Amino acid sequence: MRNKFRQRPLPWAQQESHMLKFIGGTIGVIFIIGLLVVIGILSLIF
Q1: What pTM value is reported for the model?
Q2: Range of the domain at 37
Q3: Domain tally for the chain?
Q4: Distance CA 32, CA 40 (A)
Q5: CA–CA distance, 22 with 29 (Å, rounded to integer)
Q6: Where is the chain membrane-spanning (predicted)?
Q7: For 22-41, how does the pLDDT look when each residue is reduced to its tens digit (9 = 90+)?
Q8: d(C-alpha 3, C-alpha 1), whole Å
């Protein structure tokens, strides 16, 4: 019974960390693109 309980959270935690890494990477790429677009628009205005 103890072993079952101990083994269960491992794959879930692994999956969650992988998902968080993927979401973090996506947000990072979107943030960098957004920053470049904002700098481009500002350079066009000024």
Answers
A1: 0.52
A2: 2-45
A3: 1
A4: 12
A5: 11
A6: 20-45
A7: 888 899 999 999 999 999 99
A8: 6
